[in-house]
Amino acid sequence: RGARGEPVVSAPVRPKAPLTGAELARIIASMTGTCAVGALILGAVYVGTERYAEAARITGERRAVTELLSLDASGAGTGVREVGQYLAADGREVVFRELGAEGAPGREIAFTLDGELVRQGAAPATVKDEAPKGLHPLGRVFVASREGRDAGFVIEGEIRGYKNRIRFFVALDSAFEVAGVRVLEHEEDPGLGAEVATPWFQGQYLGRPAASLASLDVTRDPMPEDWRAALAGLGRTAPDEWRARHGDLMARERGRPIYAVTGATISSRALTDGVRVTAEHFRRRWQLVAPHLGGAS
């Protein structure tokens, strides 16, 4: 009974008529059209953002090369060549490919792992930024020259950090001393491992000879306050001016280990290992490659 005591009569429930073929087709067509439009929108957004991200990456890398080697931003009197390093699929050859200018064919040089020259000549045409078929990329090298002489090198490296890979640049001057380190990509924890991407941590590698990196280690000892204060000004001072001002501290710290980020020893050691291996491998390889690419040995 209802609220007033009146009897309640339930209305009979009529079963819904099954969908006809035409109605089902309209629903399918509507859903398909909606999904297609959504996919087109997402695809357009992805293409647009991917191109922007790629352009930003290239611009950032070029700026990093210029800053690390203290090159003239206008490029006056200097040139930068890009050389790709690859390992053959069978693991028996290391291949170097210099990109040609303005679409011109580049050059290719291949060595055995023992340093024996296998071949040299024009490089087969490939799509830019894509690894040649059958070759595993080992990172790129940017060779800066000034008035026909090598002015410095920036080598791309990659190593496993605490959470994921760390991609970085190591800059060496013409005497193979570390001119700078720049972390390009990482996924380390903010406030901990991410500190390896800060100027104060990366500045600890400055001025260290590449040949001495083989014994470079990481310590958990506290960083001296005068060295910490000096490194804090790296991002606010021109590199040449900073070096001139803190040359004595650099000389003192050159023989000491890298001071780890507190609570992020794994990330600190990973970047240090990556810098050491990347710089040392390049230093030895360049002695072989330079005469064939026109660089100074």
Report on this structure.
The chain has helices spanning about 20-70, 200, 225-230, 240-245, 245-255, 265-295, and strands at about 80-90, 95-100, 105-110, 115-120, 135-145, 150-160, 165-175, 180-185, 220, 260. The protein is of the alpha+beta class. The strands form two sheets. It has an eight-stranded antiparallel sheet, sandwiched between helices. The mean pLDDT is about 85.
User: Main β-sheet: number of strands, strand sense, barrel status?
Assistant: 8 strands, antiparallel
- What would the principal axes of the Cα set say about the shape? extended
Strand order of the largest sheet: 4-3-2-1-5-6-7-8
Question: How many strand segments?
Answer: 10
First-residue to last-residue Cα separation: 103 Å
Rg value:
29 Å
Q: How confident is the prediction overall: mean pLDDT?
A: 83
Question: What is the gist of this entry?
Answer:
With 297 residues, the protein is of the alpha+beta class. It contains six helices and ten strands; from the N terminus they run αββββββββαβαααβα.
